[in-house]
Amino acid sequence: MRQLQARLIKSLSFSRLPPPAPSSSSSTSILQRVASSQPKGVAKVVLKKGKTQLFKNGSPMVYSRAVDRIIGRPPPKTGDIVLVADGTETPIGWGLYNSVSMFCVRLMQLEEEATRDPSCALDMEKLLETRINAAIELRRGLGLPSATTNAYRLVNSEGDRLSGLIVDVFGDLAVVASSAAWVEKYKSQVEACISSIDEINHIHWRPSIEILKEEGMDASDLKELHPSTCPQRTKVLENGISYSISLEGQKTGFYADQRENRKFLSTISHGRKVLDICCYGGGFALNAAKGGATSITGVDTSLPALEIARENIALNYLDPEKISFLREDANEFMKGALSRNESWDIVIIDPPKLAPSRKVLQSASGMYRNLNSLAMQITRRGGLLMTCSCSGAMTQSGMFLRTLQGAASMAGRKITVLRQSGAACDHPIDPSYPEGAYLSNILLRIL
Q1: 3-state class (DSSP) for residue 153
Q2: Beta strands in 220-281 (DSSP E)
Q3: Interatomic CA distance for residues 61 and 27, integer angstroms
């Protein structure tokens, strides 16, 4: 009996003990285990207290002020793979380091993603292949390319989880816009992935020089690295309309993100007088003409862009008597139109990115307000104004509509919102990064 009681007491005492701690192999993160197997080791960027959740939630840009310390000797160099860790030095993800940029790490994969699929953990070549293949699959699922459209965005930076890399496809040509040092480092791997696409025969590499200088790269070296062997002009088809594109033009040469908005304009233009401000190559103007507008005027300051716009009139067999393109500053043109009491049934205004970051949001909102105030005054009462912003900082701040309300007050007009739309669906966005490019189009009725 005493022996039985002793065994019961021993059993009960064991049941009150805490469960055994997990072994080191089970508690170590997958990224830490992969890093420890690397022959040269992997540096660790440790975040300050309170900063971790922002990046766990998906923001891909780890800015320098969020970093507490860097562990690793020798310290990492630009382009190196690093772990990003919380204050306890537990990895939350990995990314690519930059010793110069205000964004010292571009996060590429979170710990939870690596746990689900460890095949890409700390392997940039494999990650590139996986992400670009996923981007291809997404566009195929959206019906791109098609018999009527062969111009589309294949990779949209943060939206496709490849921050700093944009790839636009124009027929059999791919234009790569590079705006991060890591993209330059992995140039051959990026090209190999794109070259694997059946319809692509040419790749044009277009570094964003000013941004890459901020990334610590030398502009003269970049120009030497990327001598172009592609033709400077190509032709594409979008919604059945032909466009000539200059690879030396703005951005990648063509604003594919406006495709669905251009098509919509063609459905409301019949019998109307249309003005396209900041028209670039004439995308909205051409769609208005195809939609049966009675007269179309395009205005831009770029002579090369206007030459292409005029070329596109002939390319689509449009009546040159009904469509004209003028070289003039947007503000000056609209002020002149006001002085002549000239107005249009439909006005489109699509200015360049006026707020490239949140730092200049206040000053940019003033520029948007002034431009739109003028545009509202030259839109006939009861007419339509399609106004655009490609500034992510403006649209995601929620300030764009308030700015338009301020513009209406300045113009002495009342406005009604008829339609709000974003970029074409092959331009996915990452909402956790508000400074990324994001298009907002608002159709207003002017009263």
Answers
A1: strand
A2: 233-238, 241-246, 273-277
A3: 27
